[in-house]
Amino acid sequence: MIHIIRNSIPNLFTLANLFFGFLSIMYSASGDYKNAAILILIGMMLDSMDGRIARMLRVESELGKELDSLADIVTFGVAPAMMAYYAYFSAFGTIGMAVAGLFPLFGAYRLARFNINAVKSSLQYFTGVPITAAGGLLTLLTLFHGKMLGYIFVIAFFLLCYLMVSTIKIPSLKDVPLPKYGIIITLFLGYAIYIVFKKEHHRFPYFIYVAIPLYIAFISYQLIKIKKNSQKKN
């Protein structure tokens, strides 16, 4: 029983990531881009945790890897594309739908390429920008809806699509005891503080106040663990 629970913990984080992506799509459909963005960025937190937790508990599995890819295409492919559509592309009707749909298509191709080359690839870098980073950046750009010129957003949109399937080498940072895509998450935390100080927290998802402390606790644990390991070596 304990073994089953232990094996399920990383997958629960992955499924939570997928669920937040689904909720983000629902918020985008209602025009609430702030909450939609927050949900995607919480998904980024969970995505940076599930793999590390699996390695920490020594319960890595093929099921977990496949589940992670499925969650990523929803939370960092479809959900950001939905935000982009409702915020910028909906005015162009069917053409806008087709353009917004390119983002999850490029993201799915990037994930499939990564999955078949994961064993052969160097652990030091990714080939092309990961869909998590691309989706997070697109989400942050969409937060400036109404303040950013449309053509700048469109250029950034197509650039992110290209970068996902490009052969550019991106450092993986897998051995760094900090969350992947930390810059994006730091910007998110800054945005969260900004919302609270503007007294708009009544529109702020309440589960963020659970997610942030848990995430900080996890990173603190990782740092303490690294410190203890270094002390043992010395």
Automatic annotation (TrEMBL):
InterPro entries, sorted: CDP-alcohol_PTase-I, CDP-diaglyc--ser_O-PTrfase, CDP-OH_P_trans, CDP-OH_PTrfase_TM_dom, CDP_ALCOHOL_P_TRANSF_CS
Keyword Lipid biosynthesis belongs to the record: yes
A Pfam family hit: CDP-OH_P_transf
One GO BP: phospholipid biosynthetic process
Compartment(s): Endomembrane system
Transmembrane intervals: 12-30, 94-111, 123-142, 148-166, 178-197, 203-224
Protein topology in the membrane: Multi-pass membrane protein
Disulfide bond in keyword set: no
Main location per the UniProt record: membrane
Major enzyme class: transferase
Enzyme Commission number(s) of this protein: 2.7.8.8
Family: Belongs to the CDP-alcohol phosphatidyltransferase class-I family.
PANTHER family per record: CDP-DIACYLGLYCEROL--GLYCEROL-3-PHOSPHATE 3-PHOSPHATIDYLTRANSFERASE-RELATED, CDP-DIACYLGLYCEROL--SERINE O-PHOSPHATIDYLTRANSFERASE
Protein name per the record: CDP-diacylglycerol--serine O-phosphatidyltransferase
Gene name of this polypeptide: pssA
